[in-house]
Amino acid sequence: MKNKYLEAWMEEAVHIPGKIDQHFSGLNEEVLNHKPTPTKWSIGELLDHLIVTNTLYFGRFEKIIAQKHSNPLTARFKYLSAFFGQSILKSVHPDNTRKIKTVRKFQPVKKQFTLDKLKEFKDHHSVLMDFALKTDVADHQKTIITSPASGLIFYSLEDAFRIILAHEQRHIQQAVQLLPTSKEMPVSS
Known about the structure:
The protein has 7 helices and 2 strands. The protein is mainly α. It has one domain: dinb family like domain (Four Helix Bundle (Hemerythrin (Met), subunit A), Up-down Bundle). It has a two-stranded antiparallel sheet. Strand 1 and strand 2 form a beta hairpin.
């Protein structure tokens, strides 16, 4: 691979669908949609949030693959792109337990989901991994993209992929914490 970090990234990313199966394959829709409090998301909402957020990157990836991407003018401020990338990565890292306010455009689309959401997420993750491989035509450290959250935020493509994977890991970890204990509601129907 042209971008060496992608090998380790792919090794981590390939385990995400297995984690979904391991933790959530026996769920029923009640558990998938259960909200512990009105302000906390359900497992379904967490997965939908990841799909919504990641999908907002896909147009950028397509331009890079088609070699039609040009770095924003702000890319010349390398220290800022590094700052933004590392700051966001740190904030979405699974070890960071601090709650983060989600940008409106990253909100889950629906509130109620069927069990198809698990397969939809795994399929979506497969598309993400395919994009990671196909964007290997570009130098991920020198390719600077703007954040889907705001055009004023920009970082390297490498940081974008690291952010996306850490973000997925963080929310899957949060979803696992929402699973009922044996004394609460049933896991399978």
